[in-house]
Amino acid sequence: MRERAKPRSITTPMDEATASFGSGLRWWRERRGFSQLDLAGVAETTQRHLSFLESGRAGPSAEMILRLATVLDIPLRQQNALLLAAGFAPAWRESDLSAPELAQVNGALDHMLAQQEPYPAFVVDRRWNLLRANAGAGRFVEFLTGPTPATPAASAEPVNLAVALVSPDGLRPFIVNWEEVALYFLRGVQADAIADGTRQTAELLTRLLAFPGLPALSQNLPPGEAQAPVLIIHFKSKETSLRLFTTIATLGTPHDVTLQEIRVECFFPMDDPTAEIFRGWARGGGGPA
């Protein structure tokens, strides 16, 4: 019985572990748990050819690179990196979200944010940097942390929702079941780091794990909220409680690096009192009282 290769540690991003197409291919193959023989079979090539590609004794075609990348489920950004390492031009563009060719996608994102009103919705990138939010999100943040400056300081760091959730100076004091929520979220970032293999995602995970008072990733916490069907995030500020759950949407079949990395996180009320509070804030035409 063949022994499958073991994935590498998430602490070694691809750009540190590879210096050529061959080493990059081997890095991804091992990370995904394929033996050379297994990968060759699925990619419709031979183990000998795959071995030659990894050792540098043979050069790949662009079509072979994309075929292997599809089998290994490599993100578009890293597919471009493999193509460049092999001497080919990138296959996938990376557009600014405000580019004219993304106008229809921008309209769809704005529509999703508007449809989520009066409840919060955020558009973030792969590493949870905030790109845009709806009015419901603004009222929600104001309820938790107070009014935000109309004009942020030029030196202000971009808002990162992952840091805001985990940091003691962020939302942690307002989440009753913070340990449970943080553990679930950190495991999600860990999965992202394993999936995309980039230095930036690995650095985000390292940054988050450096905050004090975090539960160990191996820890199992008892399910809260009477074993609700989804993880409830219980926010509380002063005497007001909000119980919410979230959904995360991605764009289907993206052909652009930027679009593949976009996520839309929507918050929904878990009970009628929470729903009524958000509807009341919206009817008031301003922030929470």
Can you walk me through this structure?
With 289 residues, the protein is α+β, with helices and mostly antiparallel strands. It folds into two domains: 14-85, lambda repressor-like DNA-binding domains (434 Repressor (Amino-terminal Domain), Orthogonal Bundle); 100-284, Beta-Lactamase. It has helices at residues 14-17, 21-31, 36-42, 47-55, 62-71, 76-85, 103-116, 135-145, 161-166, 178-196, 199-209, 257-260, 272-284, and strands at 121-124, 130-133, 233-237, 240-250, 263-269. The protein has a five-stranded antiparallel sheet with strand order 2-1-5-4-3, with helices on both faces. α3 (36-42) packs across α4. The longest helix is centred in the middle third of the chain and has 19 residues, at 178-196. The chain is elongated and about 70 Å long.
